[in-house]
Amino acid sequence: MTEVAGLTGELLAVSVGAVRTVGTGRRSIATGIWKAPVEGRVAVRGVNLAGDDQADRTVHGGPDKAVYAYASEDTAWWNELVGTDLGPGAFGENLTTRGLDLSSARIGDRWRVGTTLLEVRQTRIPCFKLGLRMGNPQFPKAFAQAGRPGAYLGILEEGDVGAGDAIEVVFRPAHDITTAFMSQALLHDAALRPRLLEAPALPAFWRGWLAGEDA
Fold first, then answer.
1. Which stretches make up the MOSC domain (predicted)?
2. N or C, fewer C-beta in 10 Å, the chain?
């Protein structure tokens, strides 16, 4: 474990959303990427937040993608780029944070938020649904290039969270495999991929995928 004293942030908003059907012009798809902030305490149980859902948990949600966090600082960067105020939940995130650099979050970092304990499990690989949410089919490509992927988290201890909660990083693994590094390895530089195995908390899916790539 490495030193984590003083590594804290704040939870600005908690956002959830039900699955809805959206037309793409050629077909209709189900998606839960539209999230909106909610007030009060929100239960974090199993593989989800109360009131939240995902349309296809083979690619979104599940134990290693139970909670998605995105930094308000990164949203502000996008605001400048796209010329509008995107607001909390715009990237489909459940937790909008302040004060933590989520691109530097290490796979295996553990966060105490409210009465929950969450663990950073992986980066985000953007899909076409992010383009639907942003009204721009080219947006996933821009997101992949930006190096601001946010963090998917698993639930180690169930509880509840609410806007205004402190986020305390209570554990950091000794490796330096961050969400940004994982994104770079998976999307842009295959030579980096073997290093992902240095992160003990890397999900079994990615371990199996890497093993298959080496086979």
1. 36-170
2. C
